[in-house]
Write a structure and sequence with these properties.
By secondary structure, the protein is α+β, with helices and mostly antiparallel strands. The chain is built from 3 helices and 6 strands, in the order βααβββββα. β5 and β6 form a beta hairpin.
Length: 136
């Protein structure tokens, strides 16, 4: 666990790779998404609960990813996730995919809270904002 975030282990499976045993570029997004989802669980809420109880969803608003070094078949990796900014309807996540101390990829992901009935951004519920603000 990071001081201001969360670490999540990921194993690279055959299904994640191309014919050369290198992780296909889109799979990195899966790794980052899983880590954000598990991070939310550690803060005692899930996207499913927000959806069912409040008709709210977290959606990716912007995403920037930098591929530095290739991940390969059977690598055991760690996704490090930190919150760098919390605003009314958005949270900015900084994520790194690591093999030991080597950074393989990094991503900046801005996630927005959307009211699914209106399909418009809305402020995060108080309990969600409080969970992230205590980390700052």
């Amino acid at each position: 666990m990071l001081d201001n975030g969360f670490s999540f282990p990921v194993r690279v499976y055959y299904e994640d790779t191309d014919a050369g045993g290198v992780v296909y570029h889109a799979r990195y997004l899966h790794f980052f998404e899983r880590a954000r989802t598990e991070y939310l669980r550690t803060l005692n809420f899930t996207q499913q609960t927000l959806l069912e109880e409040q008709q709210l969803a977290f959606v990716v608003k912007t995403l920037a990813i930098d591929y530095c070094v290739a991940a390969k078949l059977d690598d055991l990796l760690m996704v490090e996730t930190e919150v760098s900014e919390v605003k009314g309807a958005t949270i900015l996540f900084e994520q790194r995919l690591m093999r030991n101390t080597l950074m393989l990829s990094k991503a900046t992901v801005k996630v927005a809270c959307v009211d699914l009935g209106k399909m418009k951004p809305v402020a995060f519920p108080k309990e969600v904002k409080a969970a992230f603000h205590h980390l700052k």
